[in-house]
Design goal:
The complex is a heterodimer of chains A (275) and B (311). Helix content of chain A is 40%, strand content 12%. Chain A has 275 residues and is α/β, with parallel strands linked by helices. In chain A, strands 1-2-3-7-6 form a 5-stranded parallel sheet, sandwiched between helices. Chain A is globular, with a radius of gyration of 17 Å. Chain B is of the alpha/beta class and 311 residues long. In chain B, helix 4 runs parallel beside helix 6, helix 9 crosses helix 13 and helix 10 (233-242) packs across helix 11. Chain B has helices at 9-23, 35-38, 41-46, 58-69, 81-87, 89-97, 126-131, 144-153, 202-215, 233-242, 258-269, 289-295, 300-309; strands spanning 6-8, 27-31, 51-53, 74-78, 104-107, 137-140, 161-164, 169-171, 186-188, 194-198, 220-224, 227-229, 246-253, 274-279. Chain B folds into 2 domains: 7-171, Rossmann fold (3-Layer(aba) Sandwich), CATH 3.40.50; 186-305, Rossmann fold (3-Layer(aba) Sandwich), CATH 3.40.50. The chains are: A alpha/beta (275), B alpha/beta (311). Chains A and B meet through helix 5 and helix 6 of A and helix 4 and helix 6 of B.
């Protein structure tokens, strides 16, 4: 399935956002802000870019996705459900004791999750390992890794950036969800990771700056990344934390908090979702 | 048993790994700028395409290996024990053990027997750290023959394994016909005066102590615990029932390692007084390995002294 119609993709992204809010509301915990900020990126990856088949989630030659910022699990789960990896009804069980949908992605129990993540900073290294394996086995598949702009404060990210460049992993594409907020405040206030683009560039990456909510720009960037040989690509996606739910947008407080019933109803009304 | 021939377990590892590389093309090897010391260099020379030097970046190395394991490869990851189990603990925990990935961490330069490099490089807590991790199998091998068996045997385990290896040349204890089994300790001798439960480098010291004590009419037995997890509960309980004393010895902290593991078993199944010999909640220091082992009481003489103290 490859959807090219941007309006259709926008509708899918909206469905994914509805799923995110549902998960966090019913789970009474989770991270809505950084999930909503990457919904458009995940939509383009899973519905336009990646060579995947939900019927065969473990196919060796599939493209892979590593959610290094594992706390955005609501976004990944909602995307996987929307794409048909499992029933959307599962979403309301998020973080429950009988649920497969663990607080952070668990590759052992959730169809479609390519890597277990949660402890920040490790996913890019894991993605490198997948990209190296692909090169070694000449599988020809691509590996995508989403990191947060706060997450890249972890030193291991830069170890991994060095490795990706050293091993010329042109089958690897890193996306930075640059929503500018982390738990204790803005990126600038807490621990500035800026300038993100120049950092990746100096580590040997092909860097593309995009509006992370502009589907056309995202598609163009991913297509461009495929044509670059001999080096990995980093797409720096400028996003809005909490995107799509007015009272969550650009609010630090919505990093890791569930909406109450009233807030849930407002969010659903804005997104056009059924309660 | 000819304890005069000495080979470091890191050497045995390097040789066996290169041999296995021929039989199994899924094996890939990662090192962090220490291939010369960990002996993965032997594999590197034979299979340069399947060897990845990750530079001085152990955390990245461990998670990269995890990613590769998700694609069906069998990564062997090597560096000094302090940088593997210590520096990259969280990566081993979350990237490898939680998803139960098929990564073999073969860490060399464990214990105070590292010698001159001193405390920062002498890993004394790795057995404790690694055996606390769900899904992890933990081995601590005692000689050349056992190491070569272990490196081949762990390929049969589809999951994480930690193998503790040493820098110092140590006596070859076993012959080629010795049978080993993961999770099964090896009882050497039938003496009832005491059981010395040893692991790694300390097994040969315990055997030397046993031989010398025999001449003095004191009959002990030695148990080689090469699998720290899952540990051989049955054998430990049997020896506690059959012998007058239980002594554990390890080139590792007495907190969290073999001694602790034995105490856990006995306190639950057959409460017995246990004497733990090892590094007594202290860091090591620089010096020649043999002198350090003597200084910290990790020798046959220290074992003999401990056993005679009570008689």
């Amino acid at each position: 399935m490859k959807i090219t119609d941007v309006d259709k993709l926008a509708k899918i992204a909206n469905e994914i956002r509805i799923g995110i809010v549902k998960e966090v509301y019913y789970g009474k915990s989770g991270h809505p802000g950084g999930s909503l900020s990457c919904a458009d990126i995940l939509t383009v990856l899973y519905f336009n870019q990646m060579n995947i088949n939900p019927e065969q989630p473990n196919s060796p030659s599939r493209d892979r996705f590593v959610l290094s910022k594992g706390h955005a699990s609501p976004a990944l789960y909602s995307t996987l459900a929307e794409r048909g990896y499992f029933d959307k009804k599962e979403l309301v069980t998020f973080r429950g004791i009988d649920s497969i949908l663990q607080g952070h992605p668990d590759m052992k129990h959730i169809p479609g999750v390519d890597m277990s993540t949660g402890s920040l900073g490790q996913g890019l290294s894991c993605a490198n390992g997948m990209a190296l394996a692909s090169k070694l086995n000449k599988d020809g598949n691509r590996v995508y890794c989403l990191v947060g702009d706060g997450e890249i404060e972890e030193g291991q990210i830069w170890e991994a950036a060095m490795s990706a460049s050293h091993y010329k992993l042109d089958n690897l594409c890193v996306i930075v969800d640059n929503n500018n907020l982390q738990i204790d405040g803005s990126i600038e206030e807490v621990m500035s990771s800026y300038p993100i683009n120049f950092k990746f560039e100096s580590f040997g990456f092909n860097v593309i700056n995009v509006d992370g909510h502009n589907t056309e720009e995202l598609i163009e960037a991913f297509n461009k990344a495929k044509t670059v040989k001999g080096k990995p690509t980093a797409i720096i996606a400028k996003t809005i934390k909490g995107k799509g739910v007015s009272f969550m947008e650009n609010q630090v407080g919505w990093h890791g908090k569930a909406p109450n019933e009233e807030q849930y109803k407002i969010a659903m009304k804005e997104l056009g979702g059924e309660i | 048993m000819d304890l005069d021939i000495k080979i470091a377990t890191r050497e045995s590892y390097g040789e066996k790994l290169a041999e296995l590389g021929e039989k199994n093309d899924k094996i890939v090897v990662f090192d962090a700028d220490l291939a010369e010391a960990t002996k993965t260099i032997i594999f590197k020379k034979k299979f340069p395409n399947r060897f990845f030097d990750m530079g001085i970046a152990e955390q990245d190395m461990v998670s990269t290996a995890a990613g590769m394991a998700t694609c069906g490869m069998i990564p062997f990851v090597s560096t000094f024990a302090v940088f593997a189990a210590g520096r990259a603990y969280d990566q081993i925990r979350n990237s490898i053990c939680y998803p139960k990935l098929n990564v073999k961490i073969c860490a060399t330069h464990s214990g105070v027997s590292v010698g001159e490099d001193g405390a920062t490089h002498q890993m004394l807590e790795d057995l404790g750290l690694m055996r606390g991790l769900p899904n992890m199998t933990v081995l601590s091998v005692s000689d050349d023959i056992q190491t070569k068996w272990a490196i081949e045997e762990i390929l049969k385990i589809n999951g994480p394994v930690y193998v503790r290896l040493g820098r110092l040349k140590s006596p070859v204890i076993y012959n080629e016909n010795q049978k080993f089994e993961i999770g099964k300790g090896i009882q050497i001798g039938n003496g009832n005066d005491a059981t010395v439960i040893a692991t790694g480098l300390m097994v040969s010291e315990a055997i030397l102590a046993k031989e010398e004590l025999e001449k003095q009419g004191i009959n002990i037995r030695v148990v080689d615990i090469h699998t720290i997890k899952p540990i051989d509960r049955e054998l430990i309980v049997k020896c506690a029932k059959e012998t007058k004393r239980i002594i554990t010895i390890e080139d590792h902290s007495i907190v969290g390692g073999l001694g602790s593991a034995v105490c856990e078993v006995l306190s639950e199944e057959y409460p017995t007084k246990v004497t733990r010999m090892g590094m007594k909640d202290t860091f090591g220091k620089s010096g020649k390995a043999e002198k350090l082992l003597d200084y910290f009481g990790l020798t046959k003489d220290a074992i003999i002294k401990e056993i005679k103290k009570d008689m």
